[in-house]
Amino acid sequence: MYAGNSITVLVVIATLALHSGCQAQTPCTDGWFGPNCQYQCHCAGSAPCDKLDGFCSSGCQQNWFGPACQYDRMVYSGPEWLTDSDDTTCNTGNTQPVTVTLDTAIPLTWVRVVVTGAGDLNQIQLNYELPASSPLQACPGLRKASVDDLTLDIECSTTEPVTAVYLFGSGISGLCSLYISGGRNVALKQRALQSSKFEPSTTNWNAGYAVDGTTGGNTPFTCTHTQLDTASPGWWTVTFSQAVDVTRFLIFNRGENRIEQT
């Protein structure tokens, strides 16, 4: 980030297991949970989550899923009954393979499928497509784990960005939903530093505001901003508390959409 630039929040997406069974040192405020209250709730209807393990009794917000609703659901194009975020709308018995095209190519980590009957779970197979119209690829080291009688998680880790996912097998006839994990934000409340702080008066553009989970706004208490110094480029860094495999970065700019500042 260059001198005089500002960002509202940095989202670093990675594959990292949630801690569980550990009580936060102090009670978390609503909307946060876990050790040091470092995880953000994503419950439907903005309902509070369990402050220990993040469980959402109301279910997950749209486009969030997985343990404690912590995983970003990637947007893709495909059949309407598959893209409507509704686990009760399903395939009509057709066993033809289903292809979905990702809006943004990313390395795959894992996906979740929901079906109408338990017998369909292990009858669904998955391949993927890389850019440049390459042949379909089989998942390296594919592993499956049943979440419940109607829900299956499929681990399919790739090193290259994937453009499409191809589902096939007799279980397709009972397929209701496909969730493709975009990872989760591992930058939340991590240690952030910057070269300087923009201080024309009594404002407070701290580095930590870029990792506080707030993605909107244009105030000194929601964004970070370096000093207007043309002599040398500014910088901003975040240090993770443990090693992570980062798959993508999302940077949210200030509310007035001044793209030249990023």
TrEMBL record:
Q: Does the keyword Signal apply?
A: yes
Question: Which organism is the protein's source?
Answer: Elysia crispata
A family per Pfam: F5_F8_type_C_2
From the UniProt annotation, give the residues forming the signal peptide. Answer: 1-24
What is the recorded name of this protein?
A: Uncharacterized protein
Entry keyword Signal: yes
Print the keywords alphabetically.
Signal
Q: InterPro entries, per this entry?
A: Galactose-bd-like_sf
